[in-house]
Amino acid sequence: KIIVDESNRITDIVHQQKGYIGGEFKLGIIPTIMPTLLPMFLNNFTKRYPKVKLIIEELTTEEIIRKLTDGHIDAAIAATPLENEAIKERPLYYEPFVGLIPEDHRLYNQKNINVDELEVDDILLLEDGHCFKDSVLNLCRSYKSDSSKKFQLHSGSFDTLIKLSKEGLGMTLLPYLQTLDLTEKDKKNLRTFNDPIPAREVSIIYHKSQLKIHLIDTLKNIIDSIIRGV
To answer: DSSP alpha helices (H): ranges in the chain?
Structure first.
């Protein structure tokens, strides 16, 4: 297996030395980033670099780390820091959290909200396994379970959380890019945080032994230029 893996890297070594932008490039993206970021850069990248065969997988952070370690993907876009010595992280942007608050919610009439006003039982969350959920839980001052709550929901989709919040079933927190496609009516329910504004770090990551650095640099530069314009 080692011999086969290393033989497959010979082409990568040659491309790296020549600065060639082409060949196969396998990219993993976590689910809470894929729907918003991918449409922003994919068309631009494929038009500018038609010799690159981009293979994209939606993967959890755990799957990404495993596949980077095994050499099954070349790079990934994920929330960081991961604190893994074998994985190199290069931040792309810092994405603020935004509250989506229904009209009958206790925080609706506030122009801005504070982190210390959040209660974990008051927020519609993504299901277990999503790093965005872990980020939200780290913000909340209370981790107590409310036995009087009529229902519990852990959804894998921001769209589901948005629809339920609009029905008055609770507030939710969204990454900023997720709010760009909301209707003007729904945007009236958005509330930003007072300083210090909570945000997640989004990075392009790769194994320390990765050779396709030119491709990684190219992808990072394209995403950097797009995010600056948002």
So the answer is: 2-18, 34-48, 61-70, 131-139, 158-166, 184-187, 213-228
What does the alpha-carbon distance between residue 73 and residue 67 come to, in Å, rounded to a whole number?
6
List, as one string, the DSSP characters of 19-70. T---EEEEEEE-TTTHHHHHHHHHHHHHHH-TTEEEEEEE--HHHHHHHHHH
Residues forming a β-bridge with 170: none
- Whole-angstrom Cα distance, residue 29 to residue 60? 8
CB atoms within 10 A of CB 101: 22
Q: Is 179 left (phi over 0), alpha (psi -120 to 50) or beta?
A: alpha
* Coil, helix or strand at residue 16: helix
Alpha-carbon distances of 160 from 107, 156, 212, rounded to whole Å: 21, 8, 37
Spatial neighbors of 226 by CB under 8 A, at least 6 apart, are 40, 41, 44
Biggest alpha carbon distance in the chain? 64
77-95 pLDDT tens trace: 999 999 899 999 999 999 9
| Residue in the structure block whose two tokens are 């600056």 | 228
Helix (H) or strand (E) holding 96: strand 87-100
CB 51 within 8 A of CB 78: no
Q: Does the reported pTM lie above 0.90?
A: no
Between helix 213-228 and helix 2-18 the angle, nearest 10°, is 60
